[in-house]
Specification:
- This protein has 6 helices and 17 strands.
- It has helices spanning 2-24, 36-40, 95-100, 124-127, 223-228, 247-251, and strands at 58-62, 88-92, 103-105, 110-116, 139-144, 149-156, 168-169, 174-177, 188-195, 199-201, 234-241, 268-274, 281-287, 297-300, 307-313, 323-332, 341-349.
- The chain is α+β, with helices and mostly antiparallel strands.
- Helix content is 14%, strand content 29%.
- A hairpin with an 8-residue loop joins strand 16 (323-332) and strand 17 (341-349).
- The protein has 2 domains: 58-228, Glucose Permease (Domain IIA) (Distorted Sandwich); 234-349, Immunoglobulins (Immunoglobulin-like, Sandwich).
- The strands form 4 sheets. Strands 1, 2, 4, 5, 6, 7, 9 and 10 form an 8-stranded antiparallel β-sheet that branches.
- The structure holds zinc ion (ZN).
- Zinc ion (ZN) is lined by residues 62, 85, 87, 89, 190.
- Residues 62, 85, 87, 89, 190 line the site of zinc ion.
Length: 350
């Protein structure tokens, strides 16, 4: 009578063991021998939080400052940041794109734990900082993910937030539209990654402390996001005008437009670049109506500043002939490598 019972118990034990192995996934998963706790606390994987072509239509203008209070330093030991900046700023380059509306997307699956909407889209320099005190993020969404991770999405457009408090969202879910609300003076998404509420983590390199230039960096971006996120100089603003310009005049549109007048006395290019390193070569080459290219004017960047504002004059006797004038703007880092940036801009005089 004992033997059948032992047989049943033995079979039961085998079934139990096979079942357990199936649950653990033994054998076919390379990560299976890791303890469950380690697997659960794996770093978060982030998709792009913005639906915009990088770097043609949108760019990363500022990274996390890994050395707050000290000299500015981004994860590449570069200066594409500013002191105490806690997130990654995705800038919308063209005004038309900004007006049409660039979607802001959930970077990972999670649950909406905070949001705000209803603040106006006004440049904070015009509005005044006191008006956004305590609401620097403007219209915003905060998503909680597994393992204490949080992603914050700031400066969204007024009345654009499309999710609700407590809502569960998948990766890529639309949260709102890039705006100009809160403490900002340029159209961008400030994307912030946090852990356990208050720890700021740089998604480009999640290693702790102010370590910089680690090789390889501990990136939290998905493969496709990482491929889109080039680290290159950024043309934040650029335009043509008829006289030497200051940065403020250029930013706030207080410069004469050569395309809007006749008998233009002189033609100037102005531009603002971010992400330069010392010794980067900036090259400006003019093309006259009819197609003749002038010799490029080149200069090596010699300052430890995160950005350059420059103007360049076309050397030509007034009045300037009608037609289309172009400029090839180029930034090179290593003389032998392809340029980091090469773009052509045009203006037509009538
Ligand atoms: Zn920011």
């Amino acid at each position: 009578m004992l033997r059948p019972l032992l047989l049943v118990l033995g079979l039961f034990a085998i079934v139990l063991l096979v079942g357990l192995l199936a649950i653990v996934g033994f054998g076919d998963d390379p990560d299976a021998d890791e303890p469950t706790a380690r697997r659960v606390s794996q770093p978060i994987q982030l998709a792009l939080p913005i639906d915009c072509d990088l770097p043609d239509r949108c760019v990363v203008q500022f990274h996390v400052d890994r050395r707050p209070g000290l000299a500015v330093g981004d994860w590449r030991c570069g200066q594409l940041s500013y002191d105490t900046h806690r997130g990654t700023d995705f800038r919308v380059l063209a005004k038309d794109d900004f007006v049409a509306g660039i979607p802001v997307l959930a970077a990972a699956p999670g649950k909406v734990i905070a949001l705000r909407d209803g603040m106006e889209d006004i440049d904070v320099v015009e509005l005044g900082r006191t008006k956004v005190e305590g609401r620097a993020g403007g219209n915003q969404v905060v998503i909680a993910h597994e393992d204490g991770w949080e992603t914050w999405y700031w400066h969204l457009r007024k009345d654009s937030v499309t999710v609700q408090q407590g809502q569960t969202v998948a990766t890529g879910a639309r949260l709102g539209t890039v705006g100009l609300s809160g403490d900002t003076n340029f159209p961008h998404l400030h994307f912030e990654l946090r852990r356990n509420r208050n720890l700021i983590v740089d998604p480009f390199d999640a290693s702790a402390g102010d370590d910089q230039c680690r090789s390889p960096p501990q990136s939290l971006w998905t493969k496709s996001a990482a491929a889109a996120l080039n680290y290159i100089p950024v043309v934040a603003r650029l335009g043509f005008t008829t006289r030497a310009a200051t940065r403020n005049e250029a930013i706030y549109g207080r410069l004469p437009d050569p395309a809007a007048q006749e008998n233009v006395p002189a033609l100037f290019l102005w531009f603002e670049l971010y992400g330069l390193a010392r010794n980067d070569e900036i090259s400006v080459q003019w093309q006259l109506p009819g197609g003749t290219w002038r010799e490029p004017a080149q200069s090596a960047w010699q300052q430890d500043l995160p950005y350059a504002f420059q103007t360049g004059r076309l050397n030509l006797q007034p009045p300037l002939p009608r037609g289309t004038y172009s400029v090839r703007l180029k930034v090179s880092r290593d003389g032998n490598a392809p340029p980091l940036l090469e773009k052509i801009y045009s203006v037509t005089l009538r």
